Amino acid sequence: MAPWQNDYMLALQERDRKEKKFHGFYETYARLADRTAAADKRAVLQSNNDRTDTANIALQAPGARESIIKIREDLAEAQRSREILQSHLQKISDESQKLKIQTAVDNKRIADLTSERASLTIKIRDRDEELREKSKLLEDIHDETVSLTLQLNMAEEQTKALRQENKDLIDRWMARMGKEADAMNKASKFG
Question: What is the C-alpha separation between 175 and 171, in angstroms, rounded?
């Protein structure tokens, strides 16, 4: 025999030995369970017999038939009310479920819109800052243009004044040179 078969056989023998040790307990428990089941069965049969006897006695009593009819009518009315209330409860439960789903959808939409609003607020703030920077840059350029225009005008006035002064100097120099040339010409005729 293979070693695993030996191990298996030993395990089965050990199990049998343990079960035989408690065999008396198992037998006692099985008999007790059978007696309990038989007692329950007798109790059910006795209860059914008692109900039948009570119904027969009730039918024989005067006015019992009217009471039974009234009780059956009340029972039928209670059943109808129960069905109506269950239907109403089901409708309310369905409506509640729909509202929960709608609330979840709305909460998701609110979260999305809040996120989008925050994003747009940041973009607007950035754009405002950019516009302020551009406006400041434009003012600086305008101030620089005005300053350069003033400098240009002053330079043109200086140039104009210098040209006039240069022209005056040249005219005076020419006049002087002309006088000297005339004087030299006169001096050459003399001689």
Answer: 6
pTM, 2 dp = 0.39
What is the 3-class SS of the chain, one letter each residue?
CCHHHHHHHHHHHHHHHHHHHCHHHHHHHHHHHHHHHHHHHHHHHHHHHHHHHHHHHHHHCCCHHHHHHHHHHHHHHHHHHHHHHHHHHHHHHHHHHHHHHHHHHHHHHHHHHHHHHHHHHHHHHHHHHHHHHHHHHHHHHHHHHHHHHHHHHHHHHHHHHHHHHHHHHHHHHHHHHHHHHHHHHHHHHHC
pLDDT value for 161:
94
